[in-house]
Amino acid sequence: MDTTTTSRARGLQPAERMSRLGTESAFEVLAAARALEAQGHHVVHLEIGEPDFDTPKNIVDAGIKALKDGWTHYGPSAGLPDVRDAIAKDVSKRRGIKVDAENVVITPGAKPVMFYTMLDLVESGDEVIYPDPGFPIYESLVKFLEATPVPVLLKEENDFRLDVGELLDKVTDRTRLLIINSPHNPTGSVLTAADLEAIGKVCSERNIPVLADEIYSRIIYDGEHRSIWSEPGMDELTIILDGMSKTYAMTGWRLGYGVMPEAMAKRVAQLMTNSNSCTASFSQRALMEGLTGDQSDVDRMVSTFKSRRELVVKLLNDIPGVSCRMPAGAFYAFANVKSLGRNVKELADDLLQKHKVATLGGTAFGDGGEGYLRLSYAASEADLREGIARIARGLA
Ligand code: PLP
Questions:
Q1: Which one of 30, 111, 189, 241 would you pick to mutate in the ligand 1 pocket, going by the greatest count of ligand atoms within 8 A of its CB?
Q2: 181 within ligand 1 shell (Cβ under 6 A)
Q3: Of 183, 260, 325, 395, whose CB count within 10 A is highest?
């Protein structure tokens, strides 16, 4: 058989790498919950990580105006220059650092920053360290790129913060990238100034780049957000991932950005040219309004999350056999259900199918999530009360 026939015979058989790609279970659980709703059931949604608020009106109006004003064409791959500049100013101000427009690449949602960072830095066989439990796409991309996933366990007794001793145990001369995420999905933990200092020291001494997933940087309940970028030497090794999805309730607009050393930003812009060409121009105008306009909707949203956080933690702790720490940021509660001795994926499936409340088993975020259920409290107070009552019945 000649090679033309062989390749034709493969038809739509996927490339081998596709078998290494993972997924984000939240989307699968959402689909299962929607299927139940289509059969007429009432489901309480505590699974998906998106604010239950509308995008602030000033931002929507700016998007509509931009469409009417003709922002409907291609723009530069790294983003519109004045919008990159506004992001650089905002990032600098909120983190006490100094970055410029040349450090910024605007992307369709923040997720592509993970992909581009790894495509740019990680070779097959390299090791990438990331938190477990952690956002599932980190591990998925590491495997996809034939690199070696090196999870580092986040322990409840350390408030689910990355322990520097444990990090050091995982560092080898093949370590190519460390991923940190603060505030953290799924546990709501926040790295302290001392944590960041110690992690920064480990990485700057060994020249290890850090992908700092700061998508929840504005959803923090005590104190100010800090970035590892501000640690000595880390301005040359950090890629900040942030965006509009969570802070401004703009998940469906697909607006995110990466902030990184300038030479890398040029390469990431080239990856944008090769994949998306650019982020939608009118949505970038809306981003501009989000960052530079009135922030009172964001403040209101965060203070609402804060009071819900207290409610959810109390209601969960009232359930026999369940305990839950107070999260310091993001909008997730990570409830310990170890005493029930159940496989948490099966438990979450049961809660959905029998009690019509959608949650995620902690193992959706890695083996380190066994024994936990993740609840998103980006839901109304009424839904939170009803959903947790259903959980209590399901666990009884
Ligand atoms: N990083 C973390 C930790 C997240 O939880 C999410 C979304 O759930 C993202 C990144 C992706 O954000 P975006 O929707 O802007 O791509």
A1: 111
A2: yes
A3: 260
